[in-house]
Hints:
Layout: E1 2-7, E2 10-15, H1 26-41, E3 47-52, H2 72-92, E4 97-101, E5 105-106, H3 108-114, E6 118-122, E7 126-128, H4 139-145, H5 151-159, E8 164-165, H6 166-172, E9 177-179, H7 184-196, H8 200-210, H9 212-234
Parallel strand pairs: 2-3, 3-4, 4-6, 5-7, 6-9
Antiparallel strand pairs: 1-2, 7-8
Amino acid sequence: MIDTVVDANVCWLTITRPRAANALDAGTHQALVAGLGCASGDENIRAVVLRASGERAFCAGADLKEFAELPSGVAALKRRELLLATLLALLEFPKPLLAAVQAPAIGAGAMLALACDEVIMADTAWLSFPEITLGLPTPMSAALISPRTQWRTLHRLVQLGERMNAPDALASGMVDRVAPLAALAPDCAARAAEHALRSGHAYASNKRWMNRDVRRNLAQAAALATESSRHAFTAGQAPTYRADQR
């Protein structure tokens, strides 16, 4: 589910569920957190690039087929707990961490990218947070988007569920670089190598300070989303989750 390759002090972590549009199930969450842990403890690794296999999607979000046998509210809580643990692992990773987004990044998949230090996107890719169109609250998305862009872009993405293409994402600050698809991997490799030249201790200290508010806000947003879901469930207003909705 996560393939690991180390090349010239750069670790490439690849989500390998192309038939499922690289949707996040429990195994993928756990493997990604474990991969980050190994990379953090390996002194020979100076930077990490998170990428995904296939052309269909960088990541289509949560795997809604998982936990399908559970009540929708319970399943949503489990997915949210897994996602929060993964996002915090990304935000707390002490070394340079880049996202190579080769295809659409949707919902939780877009959150993975935004939790990295830099996002490099293919010029044909796009991102979206469609939860609002499914009747789902997504304050966790808002917590990750807000440090990167202005309020009106946050509103369009979270409250309207609008899709954002790569040029617009670059112009709004949602991503850091845009490259032709064929140049995405070389561009990420060069950028990671540049990051790898920086002092590891200084980088980690800066990152811990820079991400302090995001970590706190993300945890609070997860708690808010859980409370909102519980309220809707007890009020008989819980949304219906379908395996084909992403």
